[in-house]
Amino acid sequence: DQQVKQNSPSLSVQEGRISILNCDYTNSMFDYFLWYKKYPAEGPTFLISISSIKDKNEDGRFTVFLNKSAKHLSLHIVPSQPGDSAVYFCAAIRGSTLGRLYFGRGTQLTVWP
Amino acid sequence: DGGITQSPKYLFRKEGQNVTLSCEQNLNHDAMYWYRQDPGQGLRLIYYSQIVNDFQKGDIAEGYSVSREKKESFPLTVTSAQKNPTAFYLCASSIAGSTGAKNIQYFGAGTRLSVL
Description:
The complex is a heterodimer of chains A (113) and B (116).
Chain A: E1 4-5, E2 10-14, E3 19-25, E4 30-38, E5 45-51, E6 56-59, E7 62-67, E8 72-77, E9 86-94, E10 101-103, E11 107-112
Parallel strand pairs in A: 2-11
Antiparallel strand pairs in A: 1-3, 3-8, 4-5, 4-9, 6-7, 7-8, 9-10, 9-11
Chain B: E1 4-7, E2 10-13, E3 19-25, E4 31-38, E5 42-51, E6 54-57, E7 64-66, E8 76-78, E9 87-94, E10 106-107, E11 111-115
Parallel strand pairs in B: 2-11
Antiparallel strand pairs in B: 1-3, 3-8, 4-5, 4-9, 5-6, 7-8, 9-10, 9-11
């Protein structure tokens, strides 16, 4: 049972434009959300996170938005750069499970010149 | 230079053979995790350990075994009972016992296991 869902397997965006990656979750007990970026044959690297008590967190070109009522979060990348081309994973934590992350299946972002 | 080291990078398993994937971390993290990645499947949790000498099964533990004798090390054995072991295996670690920002997991570079 997939508790974290990324329904778009791929996204293609022109360099300089905004990339919006979406993520939905089903478990209302999740209280912290993370985005990871992964290049082929490498481990995921942490990108940005947000607590359930917030609705927005920003770090440079990356902003994560959380809509708790809709159980939806999104990652905005502005402006997009070719080096952003990677697979992006959304992940969520339930406080009671002490750090066990639940991952979505990932979205392949391609940024073209 | 702190981090997580997985070895080998590539591993081949013969039918009926057990193989062990190594994961070492020098981040002084309490918790360690093993994930499996298959194409289009995302990351699925195999086993995790919050402290030394203790570990729990994840979602797909069948055919795998682990040990946690040292804080720095969390090896994963893929046994002959795992009928479809071909995948990319990722080890991660984090500070245990809290949620929020301290629960960011840091990943190794992975081991690709293939069956001969």
